[in-house]
Specification:
By secondary structure, this protein is an alpha/beta fold. Helices cover 48% and strands 13% of the residues. The chain contains 11 helices and 8 strands. The strands form 3 sheets. It has a 4-stranded parallel β-sheet. Strands 1-8 form a two-stranded parallel ribbon. A two-stranded antiparallel ribbon has the order 3-4. Strand 5, helix 8 and strand 6 form a beta-alpha-beta unit. Helix 6 crosses helix 7. The radius of gyration is 18 Å and the shape is globular.
Length: 233
């Protein structure tokens, strides 16, 4: 039986993302101003974070939520809104972990480019929890509702339990109208460059793919309705 875990839960989040949201939004406005004038996101977020005395988690939220205007426009222009009879490519850990966090009721960011991002971080380790089945089931429901023909789950080989996750996905898609194939590979990011119908919130992949679908947002709305996303801007 998988462990009962609240993926992504940090006890200080209520203070930092609810009580201090106005301070965070002021910082967000300043960061957005700077990066649209050529400043790189990392030094700019450090400067703004120091000025507003932000925590490391608040600084990460800014960096993940905010993008330059031209990047936002380019990403939104590549977003597709239906997947009937399509072949899709899933950034698996990125998508599954975000949904696990949603089903844990933990902090998620509603970002300027329309994506949903988390603050959990993945540093080479992953374990299956009680929310994993819920996440995979939510993905399957969206694909079946959308009429997806074939789904390629791209899974990072260097991450622990990648093979276990692959087996679980294949088992849970058995009998589905969607043909699911799991590929445990190195460098998932580059494997998704130039692909159509990509499922991810990873900015680098979004900037290099041909088109993408906002599955996490659709799945969370289908399962949870209104979710208390943190919106910096």
């Amino acid at each position: 039986m998988p462990d009962m875990v609240k993926r992504g839960y940090v006890s200080s989040d209520e203070k930092e993302f609810i009580d201090q949201i106005e301070k965070l939004r002021r910082a967000g406005e300043e960061l957005y101003y700077l990066i649209n004038r050529g400043y790189q996101i990392k030094p700019a977020s450090t400067f703004v974070g120091n000025h507003h005395l932000l925590s490391e988690r608040q600084r990460l939220a800014l960096a993940r939520s905010i993008s330059p205007k031209d990047r936002i426009e380019e990403r939104l222009a590549k977003e597709v809104h239906e997947l009937k009879d399509s072949v899709v490519y899933i950034d698996t850990f990125n998508t599954v972990i975000t949904l696990e966090i949603a089903f844990s009721g933990s902090t998620l960011l509603s970002c300027m480019d329309g994506t949903i991002r988390d603050l959990a971080g993945l540093r080479g380790t992953y374990r299956i929890i009680d929310k994993t089945d819920m996440a995979i089931e939510a993905i399957r429901k969206v694909f079946e509702t959308e009429g997806v023909k074939e789904a390629h789950f791209m899974i990072d080989a260097p991450i622990s339990n990648s093979e276990r996750l692959s087996s679980k996905i294949e088992d849970m898609f058995e009998g589905s109208s969607v043909k699911a194939e799991c590929e445990v590979i190195y460098d998932v990011d580059k494997s998704m460059y130039d692909k159509e119908n990509v499922i991810t919130s990873d900015a680098i992949i979004l900037d290099n793919c041909r088109s993408w679908f906002n599955l996490t947002k659709s799945a969370i709305e289908a399962e949870n309705g209104e979710y208390p996303f943190v919106r910096v801007l």
